[in-house]
Design a protein that fits this description.
Layout: H1 3-18, E1 46-52, E2 67-77, E3 83-93, E4 105-109, E5 129-132, E6 137-140, H2 144-152, E7 156-160, H3 176-194, E8 201-207, H4 209-224, E9 229-236, H5 242-249, H6 257-268, H7 270-279, H8 282-291, H9 296-303, H10 318-323, H11 326-334, E10 346-351, H12 359-371, E11 376-381, H13 392-413
Parallel strand pairs: 4-7, 4-8, 8-9, 9-10, 10-11
Antiparallel strand pairs: 1-2, 2-3, 3-7, 5-6
Helix pairs in contact: 1-2, 3-4, 6-7, 6-8
Length: 415
């Protein structure tokens, strides 16, 4: 490991924890998140942009470390092919690119950050937290480590808010197609917004929800975005098979994310909505509505360790009910990652004792991709079981794999 990469991690950690001041986003900023009445242009087209300072930067001063940031809205497509406006942040680094060719772009997909509009990462680039005591809600942007590692190495970074996060409509959490589109069109948008070379190298990075988004982008790239010169992907602990993930996460500190997933599916799949309308009780329906406006910190406090059998008329958990309906299983299968071949090398990670993202379904993703001839490096994190159901075994592997995963992408971008 080079000294520069060590410095990147140290500085990223420092930047993620240094600023403790908090503020709710300005009300006037909400207008930025309203898409045009008609969205035209190809996916990745910039619909609007706005310069913003990063943490500790002085507004209006040019060429500050670690780079110049813009909040952008860009065109993408939902699962039905409908044009949608998605927001995100592009950062042009101060550091020079020392590898071959033109400056590359890495798209970072955040891990589970919530479903409420206030949780959008682009709203927390100037301050790493957002607190609204009137709601109340607490949002935390924890994309800093990956972001600063790449910026210090002269790589352009784009952090997507995903579809429906900040913008109108529900955030379609763990929707394979829509998270993949948000990442791929985010790469196009970053290049367009910065005036970068159209054939510059591209990489995708993410862990947990972000790992699923990165993995989705990797396998959708050759069909949805063949124009992108994808060089590598790091996908950590991706929720590749939602049927298995829904069962595993139930009853953990983050059991409320099941509500995020169900809300997103209800918005896109009438069959899933019909099942939930029939099976969810009044408590469950109220809980789903509540979760749709929360950030992950709120959800841990409101729903931690709950099991979803309290949300249903039958007393069965949602994962059991979904398994009884072929139309619901079809939706989950449509969202299973591993059905297409990534067109560039992937570094895939799974925690042997991960208590929310089952190791077996990550290993199955590896097998499915390898069977199609994909170039996949699979890393098993051996962290022993520690306080299961409190996501320690999900968080520790994230920290342990940060450098190997980002270094894998950096090495391929330099080739």
């Amino acid at each position: 490991m080079t000294g520069r990469r060590v410095a990147a991690v140290v500085l990223a950690g420092a930047m993620a924890t240094t600023v403790t001041a908090v503020a709710a986003p300005e009300a006037s900023a909400a207008d930025f998140y309203t898409p045009p009445a008609t969205i035209t242009g190809k996916p990745g087209t910039i619909l609007k942009s706005q310069s913003i300072p990063l943490v500790l930067q002085i507004p209006g001063v040019k060429n500050q470390w670690p780079g110049t940031a813009k909040k952008v809205m860009y065109a993408s497509r939902d699962v039905n092919g409908k044009p949608v406006g998605v927001t995100g942040t592009v950062i042009e680094p101060t550091a020079p690119w020392t590898g071959k060719g033109s400056r590359p772009t890495v798209v970072v997909g955040s891990g589970t950050i919530g479903q409420g509009d206030q949780c959008a990462p682009s709203k927390m680039m100037s301050f790493p937290m957002s607190v609204d005591i009137t709601k109340p809600t607490i949002g935390v942007n924890y994309t800093a480590p990956e972001m600063y590692i790449f910026l210090l190495n002269g790589v352009r970074v784009f952090v997507t808010d995903y579809i429906g996060m900040g913008t109108p409509g529900i955030h379609t959490y763990v929707n394979r197609t829509e998270t993949g589109h948000a990442m791929l069109d985010g790469a196009r948008a970053a290049i367009n917004a910065s005036g970068g070379s159209k054939d510059s190298p591209v990489g995708f990075v993410g862990y947990s929800q972000g790992g699923g988004a990165a993995a989705s982008a990797a396998e959708l790239a050759q069909t949805y975005a063949p124009d992108l010169k994808v060089k590598a992907t790091y996908a950590g602990a991706p929720p590749a098979d939602l049927r298995k993930v829904l069962a595993a996460v139930d009853g953990t500190t983050i059991s409320g994310v099941i509500g995020y997933a169900i809300n997103g599916m209800n918005a896109r799949y009438p069959a899933m909505r019909e099942v939930l309308d029939k099976e969810a009780n009044a408590t469950g329906k109220a809980k789903l509505k509540q979760l749709s406006t929360e950030c992950i910190g709120d959800t841990v406090l409101s729903t931690g360790f709950q099991t979803t059998n309290g949300w249903t008329k039958s007393g069965k958990r949602l994962s059991e009910i979904v398994s009884e309906y072929p139309e619901a299983l079809k939706v989950l299968e449509e969202n299973r990652i591993g059905q297409l071949k990534p067109n560039a090398p992937v570094y895939l990670q799974g925690g042997l004792h991960d208590d929310v993202i089952p190791y077996g379904q990550v290993k199955d993703l590896y097998k499915n991709w390898k069977a199609q001839g994909a170039d996949v490096t699979f890393h098993t994190d051996p962290t022993p079981a520690i306080l299961t159901k409190v996501i320690v075994n999900h968080v520790v592997p994230m920290l342990a794999t940060l450098l190997p995963g980002t270094n894998f992408v950096l090495d391929h971008l330099r080739k």
